[in-house]
Amino acid sequence: MDLLNAFVALSNFVLVPALAYGAQLALGALGVTLIYGILRFSNFAHGDTMAFGTMAVVLFTWLFQSWGINLGPLPTALLALPFGIVICMGLVLLTDRYIYRFYRAQKVKPVVLVIVSMGVMFVTNGLVRFIIGPDDQRFADGERFLISARTFKEMTGLDEGLAIKTGQALTVVIAVIAVALLFWFLNRTRTGKSMRAYSDNEDLALLSGINPEKVVMVTWLIVAALATLAGTLYGLDKSFKPFTYFQLLLPFFAAAIVGGLGSPIGAIVGGFVIAFSEVLITYAWKKVLTYALPETLAPDGLAQLLSTDYKFAVSFVILLVVLLFRPTGLFKGKSV
Amino acid sequence: MKMRDAGLFALVAALLVLTGMMQSWNLALQILNMGLISAIMALGVNLQWGFAGLFNVGVMGFVALGGLAVALTAMPPVGDAWRAGGLGVFSALIVAAVAITLAVVIWRKRLPARGWLVAAVLLVGFILYRELFDPARDAIEAVNPALQGNLGGLGLPVLFSWPVGGLLAAGAAWLIGKTALGLRSDYLAIATLGIAEIILAVMKNEDWLARGVKNVIGVPSPLPTAVELQENAGFAARFADPITASTIGVKLGYAVLFAVVLIALIVLMQLALKSPWGRMVRAIRDNETAAEAMGKDVTRRHLQIFILGSAICGLAGAMMTTLDGQLVPGTYQPLRFTFLIWVMVIVGGSGNNFGAVLGGMLIWFLWVQVEPVGAWLIGALTSGLPEGAFKDHLMDSAAYMRLFTMGLVMLLVLRFSPRGLIPER
């Protein structure tokens, strides 16, 4: 039995990756949930919006790299991030102005907007693949590890190493800052309060003189920033591939629905619930159990509940369980 | 059908003839065959969305199940694998089914502490299942892994697998419908999106079933193959160019086969739409509360239609795998097999069977032809540019014009003709 090593192994393979992944999911799910709260439809184009913003960041990163600009140990992508966000904001404002606004004015049923967002999804998807291609792009540079497994072993003298990638550490730090800013904005500023009022009760908000077009525009701007941020952090942690970003749609929705669609806190909690369950259930526990259990009880097999290829199944089953037993999600979302 | 609708169908026919004359008849027939299959898928989605307003974005999953049915029905059985692990796998699956049923029953009975009971039943069931399943799976996958490594099929005639594909998809739809149909429309959408991904994950990873990503090849053909025709002396003597004649002949044969299925389905769907049942279904779609007040069983109708529509998608999936002669799980992509079918239904006209068929044929034609046209267009536009990386990049990217174009077509139709080319009447 060696509980310390067991804990370090657990942190290395489960806690740290799941924390980073959860933060990425939370940022993505926040975008989905804000659109649902304010514009009242499930945005199928969200994954591709994220891919578009990240693509802009990747292109700017390459531009800066070719100029020889970098941030030392930090990835150059951080410098490119504001530019990517602005470009992504441009995209969502254009789609809103020329596509969604028409349907909003007609007060169509939400499901029509969902179908419209499918069209936007196709167009954005095509654009991204047209500009950067469908392949994997790595754009992380700078120091790769905050702590590498070997330094950790040397520092502590333990058998197990704990590696923390710069991308993972950055993800958590930036996500915390972004979420703090978002909640400050929603709870303390006039515009943020008008957004929440609009989300709670549209008619009352209109009666009290809130300009709906302004609320919608601010929402899109925030969503674009969150999507680009989530995409860039995911790309720094793993890699950027348009198809993977499209597939992230499912865990995003799972996180947003588990937390309660329309509830920002719910989206964050949902993101971590989904991330931790995916990693916990698809992790091979052999190593940790061998350390944690007495020798006679140590497992022979991998002690893996499901192979990693089934991680979608995990988020899906959680989604289904929550929908069946608590249809409004953990944090009382809205149901239109 | 009005004159205008007939005109639109004539336009599609003309486009195909034009392809035949300008490019090749082989290509034109290839587009026609996949167009017919797409039209059947579109009919399935139209039944769910157009008639009943059910938002199913898991079409890919049902199409893939149809393909799986072909592998499980038409391929010859692998005797060694059955002896090695057939019993183990099936007893494991039965254990899993019993555990889940037991859990559901316990939950429904409202026994005291049912949460813990259900958890315990599921946990024990899962451990038993893995104990039985893992060795059986390894034994099966060890049998001649280069060519087989799976249980194989039943060795039945391949045409028989088409209805089986429908049945398999219907079974999956029943399971999904039972759990997810009570949910709101966009929750159902997310649920079906997830189910499709899970079905595909199972097909890619469960090698014992249909070889996973190692693919099933050499699916028997219901028609004589091109090679068989060329070897037939009588056939070879009759044509100046027997190779082209044989490939075209086979494709024509498939076209007739598919057209028969499509026409039978359209007739059935039209009859259903015009019957009291069809009117009831549309009444439910337009106002659920009112229909319920009139004593219609909304949940039951929804489940019925969800199953029927999914079965049609499964049938089309089985037909497609038969046409391809192989099952390649890696080629199933949601954009191609779910969202493109939705574009077909929306563009063609949801709620109208002829609209869905037209959309299927027309959008499939565009999907295939946008690529060469896009490449030509980009070639023409960039002809003034110097050779180099930038021009190469643009030329390589031409393939992605089709996604962009499909989105654009869909958005334009939604904006300027929201009820589609042949609207519901």
Automatic annotation (TrEMBL), chain A:
It is found in: Cell membrane. GO terms for molecular function: L-isoleucine transmembrane transporter activity; L-leucine transmembrane transporter activity; L-phenylalanine transmembrane transporter activity; L-valine transmembrane transporter activity. GO terms for cellular component: plasma membrane. Signal peptide: none annotated. The keyword Cell inner membrane applies. It is a multi-pass membrane protein. The keyword Cell inner membrane applies. Keywords: Amino-acid transport, Cell inner membrane, Cell membrane, Membrane, Transmembrane, Transmembrane helix, Transport. InterPro entries: ABC_transp_permease (IPR001851), BCAA_transport_permease (IPR052157). Belongs to the binding-protein-dependent transport system permease family. LivHM subfamily. PANTHER family: BRANCHED-CHAIN AMINO ACID TRANSPORT SYSTEM PERMEASE PROTEIN LIVH, HIGH-AFFINITY BRANCHED-CHAIN AMINO ACID TRANSPORT SYSTEM PERMEASE PROTEIN LIVH. This is Amino acid/amide ABC transporter membrane protein 1, HAAT family. It comes from Pseudooceanicola nitratireducens. The lineage of its organism: Bacteria, Pseudomonadati, Pseudomonadota, Alphaproteobacteria, Rhodobacterales.
Automatic annotation (TrEMBL), chain B:
It is a multi-pass membrane protein. The lineage of its organism: Bacteria, Pseudomonadati, Pseudomonadota, Alphaproteobacteria, Rhodobacterales. One of its GO terms (cellular component) is plasma membrane. The chain crosses the membrane at residues 29-47, 54-75, 87-107, 114-133, 153-175, 187-203, 252-273, 303-323, 335-354, 361-379, 399-417. Keywords: Cell membrane, Membrane, Transmembrane, Transmembrane helix. This is Amino acid/amide ABC transporter membrane protein 2, HAAT family. It is found in: Cell membrane. InterPro entries: ABC_transp_permease, LivM-like. GO terms for molecular function: branched-chain amino acid transmembrane transporter activity.
